[in-house]
Design brief:
The protein is α+β, with helices and mostly antiparallel strands. It folds into three domains: about 35-45 and about 300-360, conserved putative lor/sdh protein from methanococcus maripaludis s2 fold; about 50-60 and about 215-300, Efflux pump adaptor protein, beta barrel domain (Elongation Factor Tu (Ef-tu), domain 3, Beta Barrel); about 60-210, OB fold (Dihydrolipoamide Acetyltransferase, E2P), CATH 2.40.50. About 25% of the residues lie in helices and about 40% in strands. It is built from four helices and 21 strands. It has helices spanning about 1-30, 95-130, 135-165, 225-230, and strands at about 35-40, 40-55, 60-65, 70-75, 80, 85-95, 175-180, 185-190, 195, 210-215, 220-225, 235-240, 250-255, 260-265, 265-275, 290-305, 310-315, 315-320, 330-340, 340-345, 355-360. The strands form four sheets. The protein has a six-stranded antiparallel beta barrel with strand order 2-11-15-13-12-16. Strands 3-10-8-5 form a four-stranded antiparallel beta sheet, with no helix packed on it. It has a four-stranded antiparallel beta sheet with strand order 7-6-4-9. A hairpin with a 5-residue loop joins strand 18 (about 315-320) and strand 19. Helix 2 runs antiparallel to helix 3 (about 135-165). The longest helix has about 35 residues, at about 95-130. It starts with a helix and ends in a 6-residue tail after the last strand.
Length: about 375
């Protein structure tokens, strides 16, 4: 019995040893490597770039007052259409005291000069009626009287403009009325009734009463990297995508490429602008973020393979072509443009040829 038990343990150990040997032998054998088999086909290839920017009107104008004052009335709101020369707001004038004092002094001086000219005229006319002075002398005195009358009228107009913002002789041209300089849509009215506003001068940009733009003439404004700007030219088609409109797309055409780069996040970029073609009935708002897709290069029905099939060695490019014996042969090729997935093959392959792709891994054995 003991001898039988001993034989059992010897057989068990031998079996374990043999099993381990077989397992290690199988593990040490090289596995068969399998690859994807790809075919050379003809396809359209486009090399594109995407530029981030925004939609804005080509002409956007800030309407500013012609005088200092306080907003007394607003006749328009943001979002309303306005015509050129249409009144947007009315001002209550706050006259400058130095200017007001000078204008009042000018009126008083003009009245003194007019009274003196009137006296001289009456004296000269009496002498002229008695034929004691020549007509030439009389006409000079009459001209002086007319000039004095004009000066008093001008001085009064200037005083009224400074004090009231409008003169009685030109009520339609009142500077208290803020008018739009263009026809378009009011994008913003940043002031309220009661706000003080100032006119633009050499020291101050002035207060913006309203921002008006022509929303029928829109452009896309963005920046492109210096590595791609060399492929652009004015007139190229552009596809605009606006994410805020559920990825709505429409056409545009490149019309401006900046001649000078600007530094942005450590890289040199060039500003580009494209004229947007908005379909009738579609509302586009100023300031929408948008992406512009520009086709830099394009080839129709070009021989191509997936870019993953290429092997690069120095300045040369290779693919592995399936031979008649079932083995892959390393073959040099000349490539063209790529869209990031497919790449053009200019030389080295023929239509329908089979090439080696990526390695296939058996997930069950990994």
């Amino acid at each position: 019995m003991k001898k039988l038990f001993r034989y059992f343990w010897i057989a068990l150990v031998a079996l374990i040893f043999l099993g381990t040997f077989v397992f290690l032998y199988k593990k040490s054998r090289p596995k068969e490597v399998k690859y994807q088999e790809l075919e050379v086909v003809r396809t359209d290839i486009r090399r594109t770039t995407v530029v981030t920017g925004k939609i804005q009107p080509r002409n956007e104008v800030n309407i500013k007052p012609q005088i200092n004052g306080i907003i007394s009335e607003l006749y328009k709101e943001a979002g309303q259409e306005v015509a050129a020369n249409e009144v947007i707001a009315k001002l209550k004038v706050i006259p400058d005291m130095n200017s007001l004092s000078s204008a009042q002094s000018r009126v008083r001086l003009a009245e003194i000069n007019l009274r003196q000219a009137q006296t001289n005229y009456e004296r000269e006319k009496a002498l002229f009626d008695q034929k004691l002075v020549s007509a030439d002398e009389y006409e000079k005195v009459l001209q002086a009287l007319n000039q004095a009358q004009e000066e008093r009228a001008a001085a009064k107009d200037a005083l009224e403009v400074i004090r009231d913002g409008v003169s009685s002789s030109n009520a339609t041209g009142s500077s208290t009325l803020v008018r739009s300089t263009i026809s378009g849509l009011i994008l913003d009215i940043p002031v309220k009734v009661g706000n003080s506003v100032i006119q633009a001068n050499t020291l101050n940009e002035g207060t913006t009463v309203a921002t008006v733009a022509n929303m029928d003439d829109l452009i896309f404004d963005g920046n492109i990297d210096e590595t791609e700007v060399g492929s652009l030219s004015e007139g190229m088609p552009v596809i605009i995508t606006i994410g805020a409109l559920q990825d709505y797309t429409f056409d545009a055409r490149l019309e401006y490429i900046a001649p000078k780069a600007v530094e942005n996040n450590g890289s040199n970029q060039f500003e580009i602008k494209a004229a947007v073609q908005v379909p009738p009935g579609q509302t586009i708002r100023s300031g929408y973020s948008a992406n512009a897709e520009i086709v830099l290069q394009e080839e129709s029905q070009a021989l191509s393979v997936p870019e993953s099939a290429l092997e690069f060695a120095g300045d040369s490019t290779y693919v592995y072509v399936l031979g008649e014996d079932g083995a892959y042969v390393r073959t040099p090729v000349r490539t063209g443009i790529s869209d990031g997935i497919q790449i053009e093959i200019k030389d080295g392959l023929s239509l329908g040829a089979k090439v080696r792709g990526n390695q296939i891994f058996d997930e069950k054995k990994r």
